[in-house]
Amino acid sequence: MTASTNDLRSKQDVFKQRPAILESSILDRPGRAAPRTEAKRARIVDAAMQHFAEHGYHAARIEDLSAQLGVAKGSIFQYFGSKGGLFLEAYKKAVRSFPTYLDSPPQIREKGFFEILRYWLLKTERLVREDWIPYRVALLGNYGVDLSLKREINRFLQTEDPYGSAAFVRLGIARGEVRSDVDSTLTVSILDWTMERFQDALLTEELDPGLFPHPADAQKNKARIDQFLLVLHGAIGV
Amino acid sequence: MTASTNDLRSKQDVFKQRPAILESSILDRPGRAAPRTEAKRARIVDAAMQHFAEHGYHAARIEDLSAQLGVAKGSIFQYFGSKGGLFLEAYKKAVRSFPTYLDSPPQIREKGFFEILRYWLLKTERLVREDWIPYRVALLGNYGVDLSLKREINRFLQTEDPYGSAAFVRLGIARGEVRSDVDSTLTVSILDWTMERFQDALLTEELDPGLFPHPADAQKNKARIDQFLLVLHGAIGV
DNA sequence: AGATTAGTATGACCGCCAGTCACAAGACAT
DNA sequence: ATGTCTTGTGACTGGCGGTCATACTAATCT
Questions:
Q1: In chain C, which nucleotides are within 7 Å of a protein Cβ?
Q2: Is the CB of A42 under 7 A from strand D?
Q3: Residues 6+ apart with CB under 8 A from B174
Q4: Which residues pair with A237 in a beta bridge?
Q5: Which of the 8 DSSP states describes residue B144?
Q6: What is the residue-wise DSSP string for A19-41?
Q7: What ipTM does the predicted assembly reach?
Q8: B118 in helix, strand or coil?
Q9: A215 CB below 7 A from strand C atoms
Q10: Residue A237 DSSP label
Q11: Residue of A221, A175, A178 lying closest to A198 (CA atoms)
Q12: Alpha-carbon distance A184 to B51, whole Å?
């Protein structure tokens, strides 16, 4: 549940239409298709996630991936159009695998908005250790690709809201815990921005030592989380 | 003065030493060198800034750049080691060209911390139109390269603090406008994170339409800035 | 000045890899 | 079987980052 990039998502309908370089050539609507084909597609995406996670975006070689999969390189391009297209699918899958804010257990949920945040901040440290691959891919997508891909990624985050920030903020407002005197899209954006960066700062050392400054030890992390929540409460709390 | 990435900058001394892939091979200390050489280096960096700004990182071709400059391709690699090394220099130059928070005029400065922020938020819209090149390069560096380069960039932002966020926050605390009950590195980080993203959201449409959601018209931007400052005040104000 | 050395410039060349495409192999229908 | 359509394949290409042997220039020495 690393926060997303749903920045000020008003008017999201009026995008300039851009050449869709990243579209796949085969199977544009993956919903309805031969199940065999669909399965192969999924296999490729899974392997790609791992490959990108291990090597990074640029160092990842499509041919290695195809060899490892026992699939011809051409097939991968047939399915995903380009390396960027493949990465985008891997990124989507990675991000969709994360829990939503509202996926927190009921006994946490009833404690309210900021306790839910605390729950996830603490939990993510463990989650990332159990299954670092999607986190690394998400990190790559957030910082380590190029702008055209980043554009697609933002579009995805914006339309899909995979962390459920909007609904989460709505809950907070309904409970009277989150301020309602500012545009709620701004609230959501602030939440997304700060959560994303804060978690990056906490976690990235393991995913990518040196990218962000050292996080303190686990002990100190707890204190940091407290302070962070204090600040965030000041920002968007009531 | 787009905010930087000085995330939680404690313990910044204990970086794991990584192979310095991005170092230039010639003239590692550009301070003291033949003035001719130095001038050439500067010429290349200038042209590179423009080139990267126009084409993006990946689409930029070193050979095109060298042709445009009337300089051999080999020379560029001699000076900067790699495409990434060249970009890093261009990025540094771009970011260094931005004003610091405390560069605001005295009559603004005496109005206090949050008025200084407002001043820059309003001003940047104009600045970016007058001279979009460094902003685009900064944007590329923030989102459009790969992780190894991003790592170097973060290291730079962290050690150099080119926007002077730390000093600015110190001023705010001294004036009693900024909270002192949390670790000031957290305050600085929050400031950096939110300012960066907020400005991206306001500005990016012109630099890179489609990357971030449409900003509203200028009228609405002013209202957004008000709300943003309100929220930011809640976060780090006293 | 001429000779020697160190620093700088050059562009043909190389290796690598994303992306293509002509062809092969299945799948399915008739 | 025969034909048609879909899916799979991997040798091949184009283009670019990066190298390096060589040429040139400037500085230093005799």
A1: 7-12, 17-22, 28
A2: no
A3: none
A4: A178
A5: B
A6: --TT--SS-SSTTSS-HHHHHHH
A7: 0.88
A8: helix
A9: no
A10: B
A11: A221
A12: 39
User: At a CB cut-off of 8 Å and minimum separation 6, what does B39 contact?
Assistant: none
Nearest to B74 by CA among B114, B32, B25: B25
Name the β-bridge partners of B178: B237
Helices (H), B81-182: 83-96, 106-109, 113-130, 132-143, 147-160, 165-174
Q: In the numeric block, which tokens belong to residue B106?
A: 């005295």
What would the two tokens of residue B128 be? 């970016």
Distance from the B189 Cα atom to the nearest Cα atom in chain A, whole angstroms: 9
**Structure tokens given for B61:** 């071709």
Whole-angstrom CA distances from B170 to A187, B165, B185 are 26, 8, 10
Residue the block writes with tokens 């993203």: B197
* Token couple for B36: 């001719």
Q: Between B58, B143, B227, which is nearest A143 by CB? A: B143
**Through-space distance between the first and last CA atoms of chain B, rounded to whole angstroms:** 23
Which residue, among A230, A140, A236, A238, has the nearest Cα to A193 in the 3D structure?
A: A236
DSSP code per residue over A130-159:
H-HHHHHHHHHHHHBS-HHHHHHHHHHHHH
| HSE-CB of A150 using CA atoms within 13 angstroms | 26
Tokens of B233: 């005040």
Q: Domains, chain A, ranges and CATH?
A: 1-238 (1.10.357.10)
Look up residue A65 and give its amino acid: L
pTM attached to this predicted model = 0.88
Q: Let me know: does A100 contact A3? Beta carbons within 8 Å.
A: no
Query: What pLDDT tens digit does each residue of chain B (238 aa) get?
Result: 544 455 555 443 333 334 444 554 555 444 445 667 888 999 999 999 999 999 999 999 999 999 999 999 999 999 999 999 999 999 999 999 999 999 999 999 999 999 999 999 999 988 988 899 999 999 999 998 999 999 999 999 999 999 999 999 999 999 999 999 999 999 999 999 999 999 998 887 766 665 555 555 778 889 999 999 999 999 999 9
Q: Is the CB of A84 under 7 A from strand C?
A: yes
Residue among B130, B138, B145 nearest B163 (CA): B138
Q: How far is the CA of A230 from the C1' of D15 (A)?
A: 53
Nucleotide minimizing C1' to CA distance for residue A76: D8
Tokens of A134: 């999607």
